[in-house]
Amino acid sequence: MRDTLVGIVLAVALVAGLFALDHFCPRSSSATVNDVQSGFVGEKTIGPWQLACLPGPSGPASKAPVPFSLNPNPRTAAAVVAGQSLSLGRCRTTLIFRRKDNPKAVVLIIGFRLAGDRLAMIVRFPVLAKKGDTLAMRLVQATLKLPVSDCGKGGCLAAGLLGQQAQDRLLASPRGVLVFPVIQNGKPLGMLIPFDGLRESIAAMHRAES
Question: What tens digit of pLDDT does each residue of 125-165 get?
């Protein structure tokens, strides 16, 4: 995956009205976030982001494949990232959206996992694309592009590994706009994504995996 410096003018139709964040909770204090140290097992809520670390070998990555799907339970979800089985860390940072009219229905998950010294970004979203399309995350100074590796009745999966420059720009942005491949009325369909607490959650994930 690569990020581009070329500004692309997009007429974005925000669809946030269709979804609601999993829950709205106060940001964790710095003291609480700092409780996440090497070998941490459990869950922490940092802003709207959720950090979860399963029991397992410490270090930058375990040999178990990463679970990620529309099912937010990491113990039962499918283990596929960009069509490949990767050796990723035991922790994940996720932002979960549910339908406003059916809070039990998870419709969008944005997740991050460690892949050695790189960061994997994984997005599970409704069927607003087809396999081979590109999902984009518009930032203030860049556009990150993720290949759509799979689409089915349960939704689509897009994933990729971020280079250091792409990661730095992501964590320096106050928010992003997730732009889906689908076009409606000649305009790309997009959704505003808050990054409050993301930098702190990623830093805590690094500490837990160290």
Answer: 888 888 899 999 999 888 899 999 888 888 899 998 898 99
Provide the 3-class DSSP secondary structure of residue 90: coil
d(Cα 135, Cα 133) in Å, to the nearest integer? 7
Cβ of 140: how many Cβ atoms within 10 Å? 10
Q: What's the predicted TM-score (pTM) here?
A: 0.76
E strand spans, the chain? 3-4, 13-14, 19-21, 42-46, 49-53, 91-99, 102-115, 118-125, 134-138, 143-152, 155-162, 175-184, 187-194
At the top level of CATH, which class does the domain 3-27+61-197 belong to? mainly beta
Domain boundary assignment for the chain? 3-27+61-197
Residue 17 has pLDDT above 70, yes or no: no
